[in-house]
TrEMBL record:
Any GO MF annotation of the entry: 2-isopropylmalate synthase activity
EC number of the protein: 2.3.3.13
Organism: Paenibacillus albiflavus
Protein name per Swiss-Prot or TrEMBL: 2-isopropylmalate synthase
GO biological process, one term: L-leucine biosynthetic process
Function statement: Catalyzes the condensation of the acetyl group of acetyl-CoA with 3-methyl-2-oxobutanoate (2-ketoisovalerate) to form 3-carboxy-3-hydroxy-4-methylpentanoate (2-isopropylmalate).
Residues annotated as binding Mn(2+): 13, 201, 203, 237
Catalytic EC class: transferase
Cofactor(s) it depends on: Mn(2+)
Subunit structure: Homodimer.
Keyword Transferase: yes
Domain Pyruvate carboxyltransferase: 4-266
Reactions listed under catalytic activity: 3-methyl-2-oxobutanoate + acetyl-CoA + H2O = (2S)-2-isopropylmalate + CoA + H(+)
Length: 393
């Protein structure tokens, strides 16, 4: 099965989420957890951005020994020198240089012709390769770049010495079909493309960051970039936990897997949420609080009979203890009875029916019916129907 390399940019693109600012200790703590998660490449920051970021990248590079540590640089010597300084203690370093290639960026931001883009990028890659064995070059806004120019820049980057070429959908604009096709075309057209790794980097502006990354894999991408919980600029980046679980759960379809330690996912998600202050929405795939929770009676009944009726992956896979059956107005008698048994009550059918009716009345008025509510319902009944046997309440 083909291995997909995972490049985590929680500490760089993820930290670019408005309102997020990680100090050096927090970056190291996340870096060490990413190492436990088995991330192949960790982008620790953008050293030329600030003295603090340079210090953080250096600290992560010193602390994390079992992953490649990556530092970002624009296509100029000053940025590359800052990355060199930050990565000098690293055991396994990679320089990541980028330059925009799309007509919109060439015309309005860079004010460069295609030739100038090619020359500037080539000079930067050659300079970077004097100091780094591993070098990734990103064609910023590749998603809106002419396909023949993407091939031309990729070809130049390989000849200049890039070991990974990244083709980002910087503004989350493409459909999966279009994005996958870029990788397929580059693989088929650029003569030495098979000698290097091609990387996918997607943003979620139209909610397609994960599916686009998967389409890139199908088109031939070797590496996927993203963040934990999908945090990042604007609507965020590809959520790495989603890609990892999609490949794991549908391996027969994708024919590719990551080497992540999947049962570290829940812990990593919680840590990133705590330190960035970015709350994970309840319905977020894989790591949201409701991802393994069931409320409707029909689903709960199915779950109690056979978990695969309503779960395509197990909570244990990502390091959670168990699925949750949440009692609410849609819940049925089966889950209600099981919950009472969990709470230590053993009731006759008649008593369950009476308590269930009270529970439904309450659930109509209250969003979450918690254990304490159930105890009150059962124990009120206990006073009027003393034959209720309380196991250990
Ligand atoms: O989205 C993007 O294009 C980036 C590059 C710097 C890789 O984050
Ligand atoms: Zn990005």
């Amino acid at each position: 099965m083909r291995k997909i390399y995972i490049f985590d940019t929680t500490l760089r693109d993820g930290e670019q989420s408005p309102g997020v600012n990680l100090n050096v200790h927090e970056k190291v703590e996340i870096g060490l957890q990413l190492e436990k998660l088995g991330i192949d490449r960790i982008e620790a920051g953008f050293p030329a951005a600030s003295a603090g970021d340079l210090e953080s990248v250096a600290a992560v590079a010193q602390a994390v020994r079992n992953a490649t540590i990556v530092a970002l640089a624009r296509s100029n010597e000053k940025d590359i020198d800052a990355a060199r300084e930050a990565l000098k203690q690293s055991q396994d370093a990679c320089l990541h240089i980028f330059l925009a290639t799309s007509p919109i960026h060439r015309q309005h931001k860079l004010r460069m012709s295609k030739e100038q883009v090619l020359e500037t990028a080539e000079a930067a890659i050659k300079y970077g390769r004097r100091y780094f064995d591993k070098l990734e070059f990103s064609l910023e806004d590749a998603g809106r770049t002419e396909l023949d120019f993407i091939c031309q820049v990729t070809d130049m980057a390989i000849r200049a010495g890039a070991t990974v070429v990244n083709l980002p959908d910087t503004v989350g604009y493409l459909s999966p079909f279009e994005y996958g096709n870029i990788f397929k075309t580059v693989k088929e057209t650029v003569p030495d493309a098979y000698k290097i790794q091609l990387s996918a980097h997607c943003h979620d502006d139209l909610g397609m960051a994960t599916v686009n990354a998967l389409a890139a894999i199908m088109g031939g991408a070797d590496q996927v970039e993203g963040t934990i919980n999908g945090i990042g600029e604007r609507a965020g980046n590809t959520a790495l936990e989603e890609v990892a679980l999609a490949l794991e759960t549908r391996s027969e379809f994708f024919g590719a897997k990551t080497s992540l330690v999947l049962n570290e996912i829940a812990r990593t998600s919680r840590l990133v949420s705590k330190l960035t202050g970015m709350v994970v929405p309840g319905n977020k795939a894989i790591v949201g609080a409701n991802a393994f929770a069931h409320e409707s009676g029909i689903h709960q009944d199915g779950m109690l009979k056979e978990k695969t009726t309503y779960e395509i992956m197990t909570p244990e896979t990502i390091g959670l203890k168990e699925s949750k059956l949440v009692l609410g107005k849609h819940s049925g008698r089966h889950a209600f009875r099981e919950k009472l048994i969990d709470l230590g009550y053993s009731l006759s059918d008649e008593q369950v029916n009476a308590a269930f009716k009270k529970f439904k009345d309450l659930a109509d008025k209250k969003k979450d019916v918690v254990d304490e509510d159930l105890r009150v319902i059962v124990e009120e009944k206990l006073i009027t129907t003393p034959e209720v046997y309380v196991l250990d309440a």
